[in-house]
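User: I'm putting together notes for a lab meeting next week and I want to include a structural view of one of the chains we've been expressing. I don't have a solved structure, so I'd like a prediction I can at least talk through. The sequence is below, exactly as it appears in our construct file.
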Amino acid sequence: MNRNRSIYRTIKSVLFTTAALCFVATAGYAQTGTGETKGVSQQQLNPELVNIEGTVEKVESGPCKYTTGKSVSGTHLFVRTQDKLINVHLGPTSEISKLLSAKEGDLLAMIVFRTDRLPEDQYIAKEVTINGEGIVLRDDTLKPVWSGRYSKAKWRIGS
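Assistant: Thanks for the context. Below is the predicted structure for the 159-residue chain, given as C-alpha cells.
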C-alpha cells in the first residue's frame, strides 16, 4: 500500500512539474516583444500624426522587435513616398489580415505616427486608405481596434 502511494505521489509530482514547464514555455512564447512594455495608448503619449501617401512596394509579415503586444507576427507595409521608402507597422498579422489586405503596387494614404523607439523612416499606422477603401486601426487615443473595446465593423471609414 505504501509503495502505491509513493508511486502515486511520484506520478503526481511529474505531472505537476510537466504542466508547470508547459505553462512557463507557452507564456514565454506569447510575451510582449522587445519594444515598450506598454503601448502608446497606455503610456498616454501624444505623438504627432502625419499624413503620408505612396505606393506599396512590399507587404511583410513576421516577428517585429518593436512590438508592444503579445502577437508573434506583425504585418508591415514598405511604402514608397515621393521622397523615400518607409516601413509602416500595421499590427498583429492575425488581426490585420481580418481588417485589410494590401499588395504590391496598391496606392494608399495613411495617417501615421512615430515614437522615439522606432528607427528613422519607421511609422505606426493609425488609419489606412488603400485604393479608396479606408480602415481605422487605432482610435484617437491610439488604442488598437483589436484591443476588443469596440466592434470591428465600426472601424470602416465612412461607415
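A couple of points you could mention at the meeting. The chain is about 25% helix and 30% strand. The radius of gyration is 21 Å.

User: Perfect, that's what I needed.
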